[in-house]
Model the fold of this input.
Amino acid sequence: RACAAGRRCPAGSLTGVYVAFRPPAVSPPVSRLRLAWWNSGLVGRKDPKPAEIAAASNVIRALQGEGGCDLVAVCEARPSYVQALAKKVLENSQHTVLTTQPLNRPAHDFALFYNPVLLGLEEPRVLTASSAGHSVCAALECALRVPRQQDLLRLALCHWPAQGMGDQNHAEITRQESASTLRAALRVDGGAFRDCLVLGDFNAEPFDTPLVTLGGTRDFERVRARPDLLYNLSWRWLGSSPPYDGRGSVDHAGTYCLEGGKESCWRTFDQALVSARFLQGQGWTLREDESSIRHLQALRGPRGAYLRKQFDHLPVVVTLEYISSHAEGDQRDA
Done:
């Protein structure tokens, strides 16, 4: 149930704040949708400075503007400063922000900036997993209403425990339990996945056990044949981009940059997975050629530094294109 603009909207362990802006009277025809995920890294700062919040808002606005994103999902967005962040992002914008605080754990807060003319978010809920006697946030899941489709899509956002903090065995078990919980929630009677997209910072790579448990695979043909799997786009994001050409110009080699890494400073923790629904060549279809890691200018530090000091994650963007069926084409021609 949607809340009135600006009202707090309790839903179990989930709280939401909608900040609405008046949309145009007529929605333009839509053939593409772009959805972005980004770990802002702001939670690591007890009290982010105004300049840090401004820098984060510039990244979100760049994703909306030059990136053309209709939805930007951000994690590590505490309620104490998300309104200041939203105010900067939403200046002269028709996007809406929904902020959530699952399980009263600020480190796993999300903020979603989206275009209400094109998209509707309904039925938000926190999926909880049990690990060592504690409830943890496996995902924030919601129904996504998109143009040209009667059925709702499922959107799941994840931020699983980090590898470098606390008991490593416990963190791995928690990631495993979260993967199992999310897999069960997104499947129909334990079989095929619903029409869903999964975005998140999993603190695990595509080949690690939690992502395998979730059902992720690099083989989209196998997903088309077996809808109990998810296609993980992020396998293509493991290496350096662009390929080495003799000049040594590398933009990134993953989504997360940790200075001082032994073998590499890059890891591919931020990922995107889609169900078989988006691999059928009609209706809303994955455009993998337009889906990628985005190393925006707004992320770069002064004097050409790789990343601004406060940022250690790059955003990822998934593009969907609507491909009409033969029946739709025949109706238009009639």
Notes: The longest strand covers residues 120-131. The radius of gyration is 19 Å. The chain has a mean pLDDT of 82. The helical segments are 50-64, 79-89, 168-186, 209-214, 220-225, 326-333.
